[in-house]
What does this fold into?
Amino acid sequence: MKKKRSSNILITGFPNVGKSSLINFLLKRKISIVSSKVQTTNENIQAVLNHNDCQIIFVDTPGIINKKKFYSKKLSREIFKNTEQIDINLFVYDVTKKLTTLKLKKINETISTFKKNYLILNKIDLVKNDHLLQQIEQLNKKICFTETFPVSVKKKIGIENLLEMISKISPYRDWKFNNNNKDIINKDLNFTLSEITREKIFNLLNKELPYVIKIKSLFKKEKNMIVVEQRIIVEKESQKAIIIGQGGSKIKDIGSRSRVEMEKVFKKKVFLDLRVIKN
It folds into this structure.
């Protein structure tokens, strides 16, 4: 019987470089919010991918945070939880962005606590080869990465090479999760439903709202449909008004977009009862 391998993989990087898109692509489903708003991932999201004889346990983190607010500090601490359990840190960098001395310092601070660090250069489809090679040379000259992987999550370039390398170097150890399930997420379905709606809020309203929006979700199965009840919890009446919109236009739009995506999850018709309440 062939021995099995397993690795604990952390995903770090600056905000909006494609960390969430990468883990969503690997798992072939949405488990991590994708938005143009900085710091929309507000929890460590763990997911499992069984690739050949290797079980890869991914953790998507909020990333590197520059703001000095308490909430951002709380997010920053998530990166360094249980670092001794991490086999490989995947540092995702947007290759279209300018590399500065400050960024190099922050990268060094982030990766210094991990045994192995892979540099994932994302969005290579948006730059010329000369620029890509220059970025690879600059980053590896200043920082000691174990491996470098140029990828494009959007165009599905280079991901298979990354998975093969992780599988190849992962230590032999027993699998933590039952292999009857190909992909496993340690958040329940209510969390997934909340993330769907939270993503729509950030995409539609963008910078009008802070990062502390909370959503509570419950669902029940009826004969011909799924009934989802969601409560969007805000801190101020003014925030409530923004989400509802003039004549309820915003909340209707959020609800419609969320419902379409929920129906893809359940593969069934969804009735969504969406309301905004002040904490």
Notes: The chain has eight helices and ten strands. The chain has two domains: 5-183, 188-278. The beta strands are 5-13, 45-51, 54-60, 88-94, 117-122, 147-150, 183-185, 214-221, 226-234, 270-278.
